[in-house]
Structure formats: C-alpha cells, structure tokens
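Regression check, S-adenosylmethionine case 393:
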Amino acid sequence: MTSYPLHPVGLKAQALNFRALPPLSLYIHIPWCVRKCPYCDFNSHEARNGLLEQEYVAALTRDLEQALPQIWGRKVYTVFIGGGTPSLLSARAVEELLAAVRMLLPLDVNAEITLEANPGTVEAERFAGYRRAGVNRLSLGIQSKALGRIHDAAEARRAAGIARQHFDNINLDLMYGLPQQTLEEAEQDMRAALEFVPQHVSCYQLTLEPNTPFHRHPPALPGEDASGEMGRQLEEFLVNCGYRHYETSAFAQPGKQSRHNLNYWQFGDYLGIGAGAHSKLSFPDRVVRQARHKQPQAYLDAVARGSPVQEEREVGCRDLAFEFMMNALRLNGGFDETLFAERTSLPLLMLRRELEEAGRRGLLLRDLNRIAPTGLGQRFLNDLLQIFLPPEH
Ligand SMILES: C[S@@+](CC[C@H](N)C(=O)[O-])C[C@H]1O[C@@H](n2cnc3c(N)ncnc32)[C@H](O)[C@@H]1O
Ligand code: SF4
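Current build output:
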C-alpha cells in the first residue's frame, strides 16, 4: 500500500464540500510472518513466540467498533485481509473476524473479500476453511526461494492447485528483476504460474527498499535496461494469454480486476484496521489520513487504551489533488474527468497548467472525457507524477 507522510492534526485545510462520499473499503492488517524476507519493508514481524491469534482478532474487533462513528451508515464494498502473512491465522480465526465485520458493518452482498496467503503446506490446508468463512478471493505470493523465502517451487505449485480447487477468483503475486535472473527464467516462472489460469496476476519488479538486508548488502540484480526489457516481455506474454494490463503492476482477465485495489487507485475511501494500517476517510467537509500503531504489541496496548490511531492529518487541497493523480494515473485506462471532482470535491480546472504540460510532453492523453497516461507516461510514471507535485514538496 502507498504510504503518505503524516503530521499531527492542526494544519487546518480549506473546507471541502462533498455532495456524496466515495465508496468505502475495509483493510485488515495481519503483522506477522514466519520469517522476514530480506527484501521486504512491509510492516511484518517474525512470529517467534507464535501468534497472539485470539488476542489479535479481539483487538481488531474492538478497533473496528471504536472506528464506527467515523463511517456510520456507509456500506463496505470490499474487504482485504493483508500482511504480513494472514494465512498464519486459522480458518476459525478468519471466520470469527469476518463474523465481527458482518455484524458491525453493512457489508455489500456482493462484497469482494480477499485474503493474502503464503504457499506453505499448513496454510494450503486452511484454504477450504477460508472459503467457508466467506473469503471469495485468494491472493497467493509465489516468489522463488532463491530470494530468501521459505517456500519452494513445488510448494507454490501445490498451493496454487489447492487455491484453484476452492476459489474461482485467485491472484498470483510474482516478482521479476531478481538476483541473477535471466529473461528466459522470468518467462518460465510466469508460464508456470499461468498454468493455473489465475484470474489475476500481480507482477512486481523487485525494488531495493531502504532498511532491508537487500539494501544494506545489495545482490547483483539485472541492470535497469534488462529489468525494463523483462517487464515488457512479461507484459506481452500476459497480454497474449488474454490478460489486460490495467495498472502498473496488475493484470486481469476481463472483469476480474481487483475491486479493492481499484478503489484505492480510483481514490475511494478505506478504513484500515490492525497494526500499522493506514486509512483515508472523507467527511462532508474534509479528508483525513490516519495511521495506527505499527508494532503489534504497541497496537494491542493502544487498542486496550481505546486509541489505536497514532497519527492523523487533514489533507490540504493541493495534496488532495496530487494524491488523486498519484493513484489514478497508475491506471492504464486513466479516469473519467468527472471522477476528480467526485473524489476530491475540487474543480479539475485547478490542474489546468499541469495537465497542459503533461500533454505537451507526450505523457498524458485527453480524449473526450477521459484522461489517461500515454505509453510513454506509463513507462515514465514518476516523471508524469512529478508534474503534479505541489511546489512545497
Ligand atoms: C508484502 S507481501 C504480503 C503477502 C505475502 N506475505 C507475500 O509475501 O506474498 C505482498 C507482495 O509484495 C511483494 N514485495 C515485498 N517486498 C517487495 C519489494 N522490495 N519489491 C517488490 N515486491 C515486493 C511480495 O513479494 C508480495 O508479492
Ligand atoms: S512473507 Fe510477504 S510480508 Fe512476509 S516478509 Fe516475506 S514478502 Fe514480506
């Protein structure tokens, strides 16, 4: 998930004026993994003394109860249980969690409910139970063990097979640009993944994130050009296999885009509960971002005190416009012009100069009512976004 700098409340922003609030999603963070992967900077912690499963599910329920006044009466269209490794939770714990969500929130009858899973043997045995608990989309991370992960290719294949038996909507997460990886190997990995005919594929280029072992001791990665070429070849391969490249790293069969992630990219609202989870919530006159305490124990203590939110800030108009662009321009199909005002309550005219510049540089296309990155804009997304960056950043 994208993270944003948060400052204490106090910076008063100009009042907004929403006619209708954006669609709402729920994100639930599970902050533990069996072992920390050397490239990963997500909020995940080694579960050395086992999981505090009961305690954590109870805390999530309390957290949600305490957050309810901020979203009174609003329907929730998607739920995403992410991590970390949510598949460390027993099926029973997931069932309890989703029962609490259903009891507390008006969940849409067709809600997309995703759970992120790792391909361990124990985890795969839980997939049927997750389905019974109401999860209807499984997202499986199947990167190779060469990256310091604890599962091998045989386990990944077995888990993908079991996932496919129980779910008719699965995502496979795959990385490329790995240490010593050749183009042929990257294609081979993708070919093996597509044998399971997943409805969705997320294809990330490995990045060296600060504060990770890979950043301190960088492995030999394919060069920028080689990785770029790999990305293009994998894209071509996926498109030839019937997948649509709808977002920088996301590919889907027609109609099978991740509805939860689409809501982020279309600048919808989300309540994030759990350790370190981020929220973006709109009110009739303002938009607020929040982050919860990151460390699992600090989070549990904070929930017990009745204050899981560690940081909160109101988003100013210029930041709001930029954040909209930063999300919506990740979508290869772009967005309808009216969406800007719907999601920010601001006039698109405020970005006239920036839109013109992006068009002039061949990074953005305006066609009828749509605004979309060009092929060049997709390739050089950072250059495109830079144009919309407010001056004080
Ligand atoms: C944070 S994980 C959470 C789900 C699960 N634990 C897993 O590993 O698949 C989600 C995805 O982010 C990817 N990821 C984590 N760190 C990354 C990095 N430095 N570069 C690219 N992808 C990364 C993971 O490989 C995984 O596909
Ligand atoms: S299993 Fe996933 S969340 Fe956990 S450390 Fe590895 S990449 Fe990060």
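Comparison notes: The chain has two domains: 24-263, 316-393. Confidence is low (pLDDT under 50) at residues 1-12. No diff flagged against the previous build.
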